[in-house]
């Protein structure tokens, strides 16, 4: 499947989902156009994003308090006997917990799209990843999908990156195969390509958006939070 075909199919599908009309909370005023500047969800009703274990978090580097927390989560998920102590948490169980939380996160994201009146960027990103798990056939075989965190002057932001190369903090190095999916940003914009949820990270297509690229570059940092392989997505609903 060609990259342009994948971008088009994903973008068209998301435009027919609740994410295309949802209101946004904590808008970045610098990117809001026209009436979108007035969009404001009720944070009290915003759905909560499920827990994930960051890729950077390794078992060997866990603190005592982190082990206690993850042991409790492992018990809750049936991966550790409730009568055992936090010291009984092992690297294999921690790995099973990481995978269980990823699956639960994807299922929650998929579920959320059926009723998504508004949300934070983190829930938009969760919904996108759930959508990709449900519709993994829209991706090229072997695709790698990453949940990214952005830290900038206006605050933090979460978005999805597909088939990135290069260095995570260097947008210009992400390569010709890379595209992003960010319906939260799209809800701030009035016209394409800004209003497209899918953005091509290289110039030359209808999905190229220099303003979005600059938005990413304006961040103080961009960092991968959690990586999902194509197989992770495929296995979610098996």
UniProtKB/TrEMBL annotation:
It comes from the Bacteria. This is Uncharacterized protein. The lineage of its organism: Bacteria, Bacillati, Actinomycetota, Actinomycetes, Streptosporangiales.
């Amino acid at each position: 499947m060609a990259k342009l075909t994948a971008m088009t199919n994903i973008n068209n599908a998301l435009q027919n989902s609740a994410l295309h009309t949802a209101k946004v909370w904590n808008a970045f005023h610098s990117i809001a156009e026209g009436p979108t500047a007035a969009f404001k969800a009720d944070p009290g009703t915003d759905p909560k994003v499920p827990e994930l274990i960051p890729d950077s978090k390794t078992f060997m580097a866990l603190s005592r308090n982190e082990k206690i927390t993850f042991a409790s989560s492992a018990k809750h998920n049936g991966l550790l006997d409730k009568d055992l102590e936090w010291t009984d948490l092992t690297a294999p169980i921690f790995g099973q917990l990481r995978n269980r939380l990823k699956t639960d996160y994807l299922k929650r994201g998929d579920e959320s799209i059926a009723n998504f009146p508004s949300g934070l960027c983190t829930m938009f990103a969760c919904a996108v990843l759930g959508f990709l798990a449900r519709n993994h056939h829209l991706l090229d075989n072997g695709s790698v999908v990453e949940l990214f965190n952005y830290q900038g002057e206006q605050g933090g932001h979460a978005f999805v990156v597909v088939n990135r190369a290069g260095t995570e903090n260097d947008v210009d190095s992400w390569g010709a195969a890379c595209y992003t999916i960010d319906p939260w940003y799209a809800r701030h914009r009035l016209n394409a390509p800004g209003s497209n949820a899918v953005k091509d990270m290289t110039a030359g297509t209808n999905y190229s958006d220099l303003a979005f690229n600059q938005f990413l570059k304006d961040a103080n940092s961009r960092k991968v939070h959690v990586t999902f392989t194509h197989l992770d997505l495929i296995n979610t609903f098996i």
